[in-house]
Design brief:
Shape: globular
Strand content: under 5%
CATH class of the largest domain: Alpha Beta
Keywords: Metal-binding, Zinc, Zinc-finger
InterPro entries: DUF1759 (IPR005312), Zinc_finger_PHD-type_CS (IPR019786), Znf_FYVE_PHD (IPR011011), Znf_PHD (IPR001965), Znf_PHD-finger (IPR019787), Znf_RING/FYVE/PHD (IPR013083)
Strand order of the largest sheet: 1-2
CATH architecture of the largest domain: 2-Layer Sandwich
Helix content: 40-55%
Organism: Anopheles funestus
Structural class: mainly alpha
Mean pLDDT: 83
GO molecular function: zinc ion binding
Low-confidence stretches: 239-245
Pfam families: DUF1759, PHD
Length: 245
């Protein structure tokens, strides 16, 4: 499922492009440390230091994890062998993330589709209905003529892969996200970590780990690092941080 985060060149809020406001008017996610305006996060007050507040992305991740743990618990107690257990498991696997043709979303979408199709043993008809619920925008238009027959499901996935899943296209989109990060953002380290983890995850899903040796990636990462961190790497031919004496 796509998340509503934006690249804010004016401030730290990841739900708008406005400048930062006073500290008391902004909130950080307890899990990922992204920052948001209270208004954008639809909060009427700032959570106290003792309260845990999760952004929309982290809430969805937690819900997905809880669902997986529930299914696992059901299976370990013999529930998977019952008709009810099988139905619950297949229902949990039924939902796919939405896909609108954004190349950055394709590796995860493709893996989720393949894994859940195999685990849930879904038929072509079931998979066609799953795709009808989540494909929209450019992705739907590319395969619209194929969405009438269940036997077209393999061709639908193939066409989507050829159109939106080219490894070079996906990588350039991911690299663009890194390039858009603001060096002076208060959450730059967290944002860089998330962007890099996303790149690593997707290039591995595509089976293209050599992309991680791209000089553009190294240069962009270095350029975004705060100056005092860059200086830790100066002078070492093997790019290892210098130890303080």
């Amino acid at each position: 499922m796509p998340y509503p985060f934006v690249s804010n060149v004016n401030g730290s809020c990841r739900l708008c492009t406005a400048e930062d406001t006073a500290e008391e008017s902004m909130v950080a996610c307890t899990e990922c440390d992204r920052w948001f305006h209270l208004k954008c996060a639809k909060l009427t007050r700032k959570p106290s230091t003792e309260e845990c507040w999760l952004c929309r992305k982290c809430q969805q991740i937690n819900q997905q994890q809880q669902t997986k743990e529930f299914v696992k618990l059901l299976a370990t107690n013999g529930g998977e062998s019952t008709q009810l257990g099988i139905l619950i498991k297949r229902q949990a696997l039924m939902q796919l993330p939405k896909f609108d043709g954004n190349p950055k979303q394709w590796p995860n979408f493709k893996k989720t589709f393949d894994d859940t199709s195999k685990e849930g043993q879904f038929s072509n008809l079931e998979n066609l209905n799953r795709l009808k619920q989540v494909l929209h925008g450019a992705a739907y238009r590319v395969v619209q003529q194929l969405m009438m027959e269940a036997e077209n499901v393999p061709e639908i996935i193939k066409r989507l892969d050829e159109t939106f899943g080219r490894p070079d296209l996906v990588y350039l989109e991911l690299l663009s996200d890194l390039q858009k990060l603001r060096k002076d953002s208060r959450s730059i380290i967290s944002d860089m970590t998330n962007a890099l983890e996303n790149i690593v995850k997707n290039v591995n899903l595509m089976g293209r780990p050599t992309y991680l040796n791209d000089h553009r990636l190294v240069m962009d990462l270095t350029a975004k690092l705060p100056h005092h961190i860059q200086m830790n790497y100066v002078g070492g031919s093997n790019h290892t941080p210098r130890r303080r004496k």
